[in-house]
């Protein structure tokens, strides 16, 4: 097996998951960060990270890390870690094309004895059923003879400056017992919190996909409770705070469920379940509830506008926040877009403001033109969609953005109930 002194590591995909990983390994062993996006590679070479996950000082500390967009630059590596996205398509089915393309690319430079480790979230069995055949075909080598694979699911939480890669326990696995030991050893070089070696790749894959499925279902429950309590006419947050006085009550809150993990991963598990002839009612029910919260928020807003004798068609609305979570520029699978589109369906004129998000990315991803700054006294409706610190700190002064008669709706329930006209 490869010794530490002989490890030549390549991390494929330099996004929210891959870059922190490459930086940590680059502090210890020779590491190449590879990405097909040339502009991303160029900015990293200049010491800048547009995802804000790694600061310039951390990049400098990774003295053994280099970056490239050329596959030939990684041909001399013997360990490859794949961190490419695993999204779903328009029909909520797994889109494994980035994973297949990355595997084929690695296969074209793979040599006897090399190890390929996957971190991308997949359903149990995908690594060996989908990735390995791509590696075999492109390399001409045989699995577990000419090359080996491992799986260690990513646990990156974008925007979180407390739970960082080194202090989060890492699940590891390998295609043979010896490879499993190597993969575990490799990650222990950078993970101070320790590792948990799973008995198989399938177990490791399953452990990741249920982490976010569990969170998704818990949030779906409180979202459904919010809908029920809205009909009853009581404040959901007050109910949850009262229930939370019991020691074992779980502290989940209602809200939009987006991002590249919680809003996506459950579909990988349900896809696998359905392929085996089992229909996962509970998981899919949770997904339907969470995917419908944008529509529910806007219907609540429109009802309040009617009660307030405000015109709907032609009204000006301001949506504060586009990223999928607070204090983070990540707009992948953001459900704030659902609120924007639903408001537009009522013929409202909608402005979107988010100081964390790149206007170019918003335009490319969703066709939205972000405003540079909202104008005071301009809006009939103000929707606090993302709890960025700068929004929360303004509190009730957000009302200065509204017209004399306006509505302030707090999707995140971060403002006191007496400061808003509605909240989840």
Walk me through the structure.
By secondary structure, the chain is an alpha/beta fold. It has helices spanning 18-26, 38-45, 56-61, 97-107, 126-139, 177-188, 201-232, 236-243, 265-275, 281-291, 293-307, 336-345, 359-366, 389-394, and strands at 9-12, 31-34, 65-68, 79-82, 115-118, 148-151, 170-172, 195-197, 316-320, 349-353, 379-384, 402-410, 422-423. Helix 4 (97-107) runs parallel beside helix 5, helix 7 packs across helix 10 (281-291) and helix 11 (293-307) crosses helix 12 (336-345). The radius of gyration is 23 Å and the shape is elongated. Helices cover 38% and strands 13% of the residues. It has a six-stranded parallel sheet with strand order 3-2-1-4-5-6, with helices on both faces. A five-stranded parallel sheet has the order 10-9-11-12-13, covered by helices on one side.
Low-confidence runs: none
| Rg, Cα atoms, Å | 23 Å
Structural class, by secondary structure, is: alpha/beta
What is the helical fraction, as a range of percent? Answer: 25-40%
How does the overall form come out from the CA principal axes? Answer: elongated
Fraction of residues in β-strands: 5-15%
DSSP summary: helix tally: 14
In short:
With about 425 residues, the chain is α/β, with parallel strands linked by helices. The chain has helices spanning about 20-25, 40-45, 55-60, 95-105, 125-140, 175-190, 200-230, 235-245, 265-275, 280-290, 295-305, 335-345, 360-365, 390-395, and strands at about 10, 30-35, 65-70, 80, 115-120, 150, 170, 195, 315-320, 350-355, 380-385, 400-410, 420-424. Helices cover about 40% and strands about 15% of the residues.
